[in-house]
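User: I'm new to structure prediction. If I give you an amino acid sequence, what do you actually give back? Let's try with this one:
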Amino acid sequence: MRSSIEIGRIMGIPIRLHITLLLVLPLFAYIFTTEEFGFAGVSSETLKYLLSFTATVAIFLSILIHELSHSSVALRNGLEVKSITLFLFGGIASMEDIPKNPAFEFKMALLGPLASLGIGFVMLGIDFLLGTLGYSVYHFFGIIGTINIGLFIFNMIPAFPMDGGRVFRAWLASRMSYIEATRKAVTIGQVLAVVMGIIGLFLVHPLLIMIAFFVYIGAAEEGKATEMTVPLEGVTVSDLMTGEIITVPSSMSVNELMELMLERKHMGYPVIEDGELVGVVTFTDVQKIPHDKRKEFRVGEIMTRNIISIQMTDPAEDALRLLFTHNIGHVLVMNNTQLVGIVSRTDVLRATQILGS
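Assistant: Good question. You get back a string of structure tokens that encode the predicted 3D arrangement of the chain. For your 357 residues, that looks like this:
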């Protein structure tokens, strides 16, 4: 089952709704009908629910504009934005790795919150203008404006994964190394998360506790990702790959493959048929075959035909991303269409440790 649904494209970017958002939209609308800040005072039940649902949609449209503001900076600088997904806690723009340039990161991270701030002031201005003309419209625009101002303040908290954490990291990175700036930003973000969590416990506020947990984990993940990718800058796949390739024929029995794995201490091999690369076979594939059937099955019957490969001139960061995105142990290395090597998760992590020390 797909976790998100594409509803259209803006600036060529696929816009998706996550299943969590579809589930909670009615809940958010219901909350607006019961809160005094919302539309609890509206006498007409039909109008109350109509205003509540419209307000809910307007808030997520505001979040979409927030994410599009980030994405516009990325597109103008030649980065690919793969998608924007709206989900329970807001929105996220999926894009290729942001260049570790403090000025660029500062601008891109800041533009989203500024969009929320702009929407907030415009909505509050409309609410004020309508009020002076005697049309309150149940302060619909004032509610949307206030929430957007709140989103601006929340997003500018100097903690990952919020935009404020990236703005803070970019500011620090203009004064020290990128890794050191990330470490400081992560530490401060996690301290803020702990403080939020303690306040949440004292106030018995589950949402604040959840946000604190989200911030703490997000900060840790950002720190870990940066520690792994920054040392690989300027390193290509050819610098890390193993050029000695052990291939197996598709006609080899699974039993013989097991003996080869035991002898060579490798858990995955490219599969060759008539001189052509046709797949990859790993220990995971072997495990699917019962022990007493392994003499009967051939490698060609159990191998994976979906070959995940990378060019030898590609950045080492791309190999790292492929390994973790697909949760695999090895990536085949190609020189155009020719198999020239293999790079493993161990190869990349070892390089990260050595170059980062």
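You can read the tokens as a compact description of the fold. Here is one thing that stands out. Strands lie at 4-10, 13-18, 81-87, 90-95, 248-249, 268-273, 276-282, 309-311, 330-335, 338-344.
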